[in-house]
Specification:
This protein has a single domain, classed as Double Stranded RNA Binding Domain. A hairpin with a 5-residue loop joins strand 1 and strand 2. With 74 residues, the protein is α+β, with helices and mostly antiparallel strands. The protein is elongated, with a radius of gyration of 12 Å. It is built from 1 helix and 4 strands; from the N terminus they run βββαβ. Strands 3-2-1-4 form a 4-stranded antiparallel β-sheet, with helices on one face.
Length: 74
């Protein structure tokens, strides 16, 4: 099964990238590149979604920023 999660990615003044998602509560990750940030976000989102589904919980941002649809295989 796959799920699409919208990521919000922004470049921080320090040069790192920050990814968050309004759809996955608790998803906040940083990476040195956009690709690294997306890969970390994919792993963290998968774990958060699995943990939230086990507890029965439901899923719920300066500088350069954009949204990215993240597809997660569950």
């Amino acid at each position: 099964m796959e799920r699409v999660v919208q990521l919000h990615i922004e470049k921080l003044p320090e040069g790192l990238y920050l990814a968050t998602s309004a759809e996955v509560q608790g998803l906040v990750v940083q990476g040195r590149t956009i690709q690294e940030t997306i890969e970390i976000a994919r792993d963290v989102a998968k774990k958060l979604i699995e943990a939230q589904s086990n507890t029965g919980a439901t899923l719920q941002p300066a500088g350069e920023a954009f949204d990215y649809p993240l597809i997660i295989a569950l």
